[in-house]
Amino acid sequence: MSGTGASQATYLSELFGLDGRVAVVTGAADGLGKVIAIALARAGAHVVTADMDEAGLAGTDKQIADLGAAHLAVPCDVGSEKQVQALFQAVDEKFGQVDILINNAGVLVTLAAPQDYPLAAWNRTMQVNVTGAFLCARLAGRRMIARGNGGSIVNLSSIGGLTALAGGSLSYDVSKSAVAQLTRELAVEWARYGIRVNALAPCHFRTRGWSSAADDPAQQQTIQTIVHGIPLGRMGEPEEIIGPMLFLLSPAASMVSGIVLPVDGGNLAMNATAGGVMAGNYNYDSDQ
To answer: In the CATH hierarchy, which fold is given to the domain comprising 17-265?
Structure first.
């Protein structure tokens, strides 16, 4: 029995483990990026974290170091080509390779009606969320191609990139739609090199900002509206991003590329008119 258990554990480790792979995670100072970076370290990867928030970045890096994983933290604004180049130069010097890229860094600069949306906010959102993802993917892809061992890239899109959320989040939603298309384009372009490119599209997760809103009595109407659109009846917990992420990165997903995987509690599956059903309103009379 013990032998069987050991062999099963080895099988699962080979299927889902990331031992010795060098992973770059952007936006790793907090939120989903931090959770993902720590999870990759637990899965055996060497983890490079990047973020503009240097204090938060140091905290994430320490937690990875405490796990005994090889690690590197690099302050970086992914919207800056110069800083992205410095990030990957630091990775070259420390590890000499890149096997995994998680394009998680993103901003939501402001909420405003489309007719009043500030151009500066639009430009900054696109600079970080779209150009930043492209810059990181371009440099990671060059290294993966040159090394000849393939690789895996996962971009963070959003349900807002697949359907219209409205509510003033115009530039964010448009940017996440662009990230989804970037994913598909790169997946096709780089398949010949054994590089798989996928994306996750989360709904609202209880990261720091949304967790604070959920605990704020003044925000309860907003939270109820959000939860009403999620069939599972709640926002996601940050740790719930780990399983889908590890799957897409792992050998278990060796034939998966070019997908945008919703992690949304059923949000995208539900038609807007399903609200009554979700509330348990089954009152309907018919002679048929």
So the answer is: Rossmann fold (3.40.50)
